[in-house]
Give the backbone structure.
Amino acid sequence: MGWSFTYISRDDLVRSLIAPQQNRYLHRRVLTYALHDNVLWLLVRITARADTPVLAAGGSVTRIHCHVLQCASGMWGYKPLRETDAPHYYTCPMSAPLLSVLWHSHTRLMGLAREVMA
């Protein structure tokens, strides 16, 4: 996925990304979030409002989403990365549920490396 630049301020961008969203098929709600530098981590619950190829109506899944934030030409934008993309950002809070073993192991190693270097 590419970058989307449409926000005047970083705060407006973050508010937009953590706001509940829904369409005819899905409802997305952010359970919690953490902002580390320009990386926004979201724990998202997605609930099907109607049957979809992946979820039956009423079914839900919880996912970790990572949004890399950037300012270019005075406009703030983001690039969404999903947990399945195995992003190369390992600042995800360790309190996040263990949804991706590989991602969490890299996050733990990076955290330990930062502690050793401090």
